[in-house]
Amino acid sequence: MEIRKLNADEQPPMALLLLADPSLKLVDEYIKRGQCFVAEVENSIIGVYVLLRTRPETVEIVNIAVEENNQGKGIGKQLVLDAIHNAKLLGFKTIEIGTGNSGIGQLALYQKCGFRITGVDRDFFIRHYSEKIVENGIQVVDMIRLSQDL
Ligand code: ACO
Ligand code: ACO
């Protein structure tokens, strides 16, 4: 598997991006401003993450996803670690990530990769998403924010 930057002439892997974020409007908006990286096996894209500069010296992983039939094999962890590595190379001092209150696996993964919880953006998913979202039998309402120093 190779993790590489998406080329300027390539289409972003929308199906994967929508797996992590069901809002086409938000994905469309940050994909233009951010840097998209993909995990590729035999010319097939099976994973993605997007880095977006949010404040001076701060970058956020705004989207990360692995194709459903390839989840649970350590690819997500490789992508998070690659994002941290690239954020450092790009000179950022802090990396952030956020996930829904229902994201038990995501919270496990991000903390295993060194992120610490910094706060809760209450009702984020009520304010920004018109559809009700349910994951692990839990309604997604709040955004858990995590960060780590680079
Ligand atoms: N309890 C404890 N640990 C868990 C749990 C759990 N319920 N679920 C996962 N983990 C751990 C795994 O054990 C593993 O740790 P380990 O390597 O120490 O064993 C780690 O979390 C992640 O495992 P991976 O196999 O690397 O993860 P995967 O390849 O499945 O990728 C991802 C994770 C990206 C979240 C994937 O499941 C996915 O695409 N999900 C759908 C989209 C999504 O929710 N994206 C994130 C939204 S938030 C955002 O985009 C910023
Ligand atoms: N992912 C998704 N859902 C989960 C997970 C997981 N990793 N783990 C548990 N759940 C869900 C279960 O599916 C279940 O939901 P459901 O009924 O919709 O299926 C629910 O959480 C709880 O399941 P129970 O079987 O009722 O829980 P249990 O009898 O195991 O009791 C408890 C939970 C009290 C935490 C028990 O595991 C325990 O004693 N743990 C050790 C002590 C402890 O940690 N106590 C809490 C410390 S915090 C405090 O005391 C305030």
- In which range does the helix fraction lie? 25-40%
Low-confidence stretches: none
The Rg value, from CA coordinates, equals 15 Å
**Widest sheet, order of strands:** 1-2-3-4-5-9-6
Largest sheet: 7 strands, mixed
What is the average per-residue confidence, as pLDDT, rounded to a whole number?
97
Bound ions, cofactors and other small molecules, one mention each: acetyl coenzyme *A
Morphology call: globular
Total of helices: 5
CATH architecture assignment name: 3-Layer(aba) Sandwich
Strand composition percent = 35-45%
Calculate the terminal CA-CA distance, rounded to whole Å: 25 Å
Structural class: alpha+beta
CATH level 4 superfamily = Gcn5-related N-acetyltransferase (GNAT)
Indicate the CATH topology. Answer: Aminopeptidase
CATH class: Alpha Beta
Q: Please provide the ordered H/E string of secondary-structure elements.
A: EHHEEEHEHEHEEE
Number of domains: 1
Give the tally of β-strands.
9
InterPro entries: Acyl_CoA_acyltransferase, GNAT_dom, NAT_camello-type
GO molecular function, one term: N-acetyltransferase activity
Organism: Paenibacillus endophyticus
Keywords: Transferase
